[in-house]
Design brief:
Blueprint (H helix, E strand, L loop, with lengths): L2 H6 L15 E2 L2 E2 L2 H33 L4 E5 L2 E4 H14 L5 H24 L6 H12 L9 H13 L3 H25 L2 E12 L2 H12 L4 H8 L3 H4 L15 H7 L7 E7 L2 E15 L2 H21 L3 E3 L3 H10 L2
Antiparallel strand pairs: 1-2, 3-4, 3-8, 5-7, 6-7
Length: 334
């Protein structure tokens, strides 16, 4: 055997197989550079997401949330920003109420203001920008003036104190003007005269006592004398129980109903009004009694409230104020 044959007959060394330990994704190997790039990309994406969330929250708190409508009264709309603007003054006017109750009462007040505006419009009452400006000037105690005037200075100070802008303050004032014009309209409709009823009354704090006094009156005892001795109303007891002539609409509702259609000398009761029980006798009905100014104003307010309730009954009202809306308003109210 030749030398050549001897060497070539030796077993040849096997090739060592190289094992690819690189990570794979869907069967495709990924290099270290690619891994680093993926990590950096993921971090960048996470940063963009975080910044996006921060930006969204800022946009939501600054633009979207304040413009959310939290109350619809027919065509009238109340946004959360206006609700927050009204909070400080309303809370200051009701310092003894809880924040939760004040928040609910403020929404109810805004609802009533919107209804009053609808009633005024329905009655043909117009409220101009000039009306609003004049009302602001009257509340400031100065005449209307331009830039640099006392009006301008005092008005700017008031807006600063209340942390309200001109638009919100004028809207609030417009609601007040609507209420005043409605009251004026109803005062004119009421006139200066109307039915006044004079009653003699005894007020006691239990039904049993009222029944006892009723029996004594029916048995002939003088009601005026009993009123002097037994009535809890210190003012009328000094007048033998006789109360001032009053329009029936200004009496408690249960008293109105009890004396409706009753003639002079008729006795009714016992009637419960809050914590007291009343015995009432009609002493006089004057169909042409003269109203004093406080009575006229109260009667006008009653008519205005009745008109608002009637408007409420035929107006679509939608409240969407949530607990989170109240929290936002409390945080953003100045």
């Amino acid at each position: 055997m030749s030398r050549r044959e001897r060497t070539t007959a030796l077993p040849r060394p096997r090739r060592r197989e190289t094992i690819d330990t690189r990570p794979r994704y869907l069967g495709v190997p990924i290099g270290e550079a690619a891994v680093r790039l993926a990590i950096l990309g993921g971090a960048a994406a996470l940063l963009v997401l975080v910044l996006g969330l921060i930006g969204w929250n800022w946009y939501s708190d600054t633009f979207r949330r304040p413009n959310e409508v939290i109350l619809r009264v027919g065509p009238e709309r109340v946004k959360l920003s206006y609700y927050a603007d009204r909070m400080p003054l309303f809370f200051q006017s009701n310092p003894n109420e809880t924040a939760t109750l004040n928040a609910e009462n403020l929404l109810r007040k805004l609802e009533e203001e919107a209804l009053a505006l609808l009633v005024a419009g329905n009655a043909g009452i117009t409220i101009t920008d000039e009306d609003v400006t004049n009302a602001i000037a009257e509340s400031l105690g100065v005449p209307v003036g331009g830039p640099g005037s006392s009006f301008d200075t005092l008005y700017r100070n008031r807006l600063k104190t209340l942390a309200m802008d001109d638009s919100a303050y004028r809207r609030m004032t417009k609601a007040g003007v609507a209420a005043e014009k409605l009251t004026e309209r109803y005062t004119q409709e009421i006139g200066d005269t109307g039915e006044l009823v004079t009653v003699r009354s005894i007020l006691v704090d239990s039904r049993e006592k009222a029944d006892e006094l009723l029996g004594r009156i029916k048995n002939g005892e003088d009601m005026g004398t009993l009123a002097q001795m037994e009535s809890a109303d210190l003012t009328s007891r000094q007048q033998d129980g006789v109360m001032l002539p009053t329009a029936p609409a200004l009496m408690p509702k249960s008293i109105q109903d009890a004396i409706a259609g009753k003639g002079e000398g008729e006795l009714v009761g016992p009637i419960q009004v809050q914590q007291y029980w009343w015995l009432v006798r009609v002493e006089e009905r004057n169909p042409a009694g003269v109203y004093d100014e406080p009575d006229k104003e109260q009667l006008a307010q009653i008519k205005r409230n009745e008109a608002i309730e009637e408007m409420r009954s035929r107006t679509t009202i939608k409240r969407t104020l949530s607990a989170s809306d109240i929290d936002w308003a409390l945080e953003n109210a100045q």
